[in-house]
Design brief:
Layout (H helix, E strand, L loop, with lengths): L10 H12 L15 H9 L7 E11 L1 H4 L9 H11 L2 E9 L5 H13 L7 E5 L2 H5 L4 H17 L3 E5 L9 H7 L2 H9 L2 E3 L22 H18 L3 H6 L11
Parallel strand pairs: 1-2, 1-3, 3-4, 4-5
Length: 258
């Protein structure tokens, strides 16, 4: 069953401009990940667990927009679904609740955060936050985006929930001034609130049209697998140590170097 929720990302805008954003000084684009095809990535995710799933359940909350909701994908193909499988293949007894809502801005996310957290039993050990893309595509003020994201991170930290922050990049056609204000939001907030940072969530697929849906905005199922392969280590690093999780303590996180 496909997701048909309204999406606010602009198909004609995102792919070309973010391709430009990923271009570094006119350098030739890197070849596809040492020819590790997305089919190979999916095979790796589908393989039987190399490590038996062990230990208590690790509840994780995926909180964001259509990139987490699984827009245009079949059931079981969203990023949270495939990430859970990848974590379990590593022996992590993960259970990921998908609280992605297509079209959400940071303001909409902040508005529903309290309700979402109250609905989670048990409390998540980790929140994966992916918001801001719709703010950028609507040209909303970066200061507003930053303020909303900061409130979200502040609330999660106050509840002793660690955070993996999935970054977004501003489209170059919005201008250098907008990019200069928008792009630093994610690394700065990750540093300030001790979140683990993925600098640009779409990096593994943005220059590979075959891994994007026809709207040129959302990854295909194979694109999701490529993103999972690129980010699963960040998720493992962001999870609290099992001893800390057992006591309810949440040590401050440190952004992973990239």
């Amino acid at each position: 069953m496909r997701a048909h929720a309204k999406v606010l990302l602009a198909p004609s805008l995102l792919l070309p401009v973010l391709l430009s954003a990923c271009d570094r000084g006119g350098e030739e684009a890197a070849p596809p990940a040492a020819e590790q095809t997305s089919g190979e990535a999916r095979s790796a995710l589908d393989a039987p667990p190399a490590i038996p799933v062990m230990g208590p359940e690790r509840p994780i909350l995926a909180f964001g927009d259509s990139l987490l909701a699984g827009y245009g994908l079949e059931d079981g193909e969203s990023y949270p679904d495939r990430l859970e499988q990848a974590l379990r293949a590593r022996g992590v007894n993960a259970r990921i609740a998908n609280a992605g809502v297509s079209g959400d801005t940071t303001a909409a996310g902040l508005e529903r955060l309290d309700f979402t957290l109250k609905s989670q039993t048990p409390k998540p050990e980790l929140a994966i936050v992916s918001l801001g893309g719709n703010d950028m595509l609507r040209s909303l003020p970066p200061a507003e985006t930053r303020r909303n994201l900061e409130e979200i991170l502040k609330r999660l930290k106050g509840d002793n929930i660690r955070v993996l922050l999935l970054g977004m990049m501003a489209a170059p056609n919005l201008g250098k001034d907008y990019s200069a204000k928008f792009n630093p939001i994610y690394p700065q907030l990750a540093q300030e609130y001790g979140a683990t940072l993925v600098p640009f969530f779409l990096q593994p697929v943005i220059d590979k049209p075959d891994l994007m849906q026809q709207d040129h905005v959302h990854p295909t199922a194979l694109g999701i697998d490529a993103i999972v392969t690129a980010t699963v280590d960040d998720v493992v690093a962001a999870l609290p140590k099992r001893e800390a999780a057992a006591t309810g303590a949440t040590p401050a996180g440190t952004p992973r170097p990239h």
